[in-house]
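Board notes (copied after class):
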Amino acid sequence: MDLINVVDALCNIKRIGWLQRGIEAAETVCQHAFLAALLAGEIAAELRSRGDEVDVAQAVAAAAIHDLAEFELGHPGNGVRSAADWESLELEAMKRIYPHLYELFRSYRKADGKLGVLVSFADKLATLVRACRYAERGYEVGDLIESFLKKLSGYPPPYPELLRGYLARYCRGALSSPSRASSE
C-alpha cells in the first residue's frame, strides 16, 4: 500500500454530512481523524491521571486510523451506511489493506474494552466539536449537535463529566447560537 496515496486520498475526501449541510469548506476525513486522535490522547491522559490503566499511545493510534478504511470505501452518507452492513465492510477492508492494524481498528469499531470505548467517544466528540464550530459560523447543524450530545451523554462515567468540560471549552457559543435554537 502506498502510504502517500492513502494520506492524499483521506486528506481530499470531504466528510459528506458537512457537504450535505451546505458547508463548502467542509472538514476532510484526514482533519477529522487528526482531531479525534488529539482528543483521544487528551482523554487518555486525563483518565491515566485519575488512575485508570489506559495506554495513551494506543488511544492516539486507534483514533488516527479509525477512518482508514475510507481510503477504499469512501465516505458515504448515513443512508448508505445504514443500508449496508457498514461495520462489516470496514472490518473487511481493514483486514485486507492493513492487517497489522486490524485489532487496533476492531477495538474501536466494536467499542471493545476501555480503549475501544475511549476512541469511540473521541470520534463522536470530534464530530460534535466540529459541529459547534460550524454552528458558530451560522450553519444549520443544531440537530446534529443535539444528536451527538445525546449519544455522548450515554457513555459511562467519567465520560459525561469529560463531555461537560469539552462543551465548556469548545461549544459554549454554539449551544446558545441562533442556528441551534432554530432547530429545536
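Comment from the instructor: Residues 177-184 have pLDDT under 50 and may be disordered. DSSP finds twelve helices and no strands in the chain.
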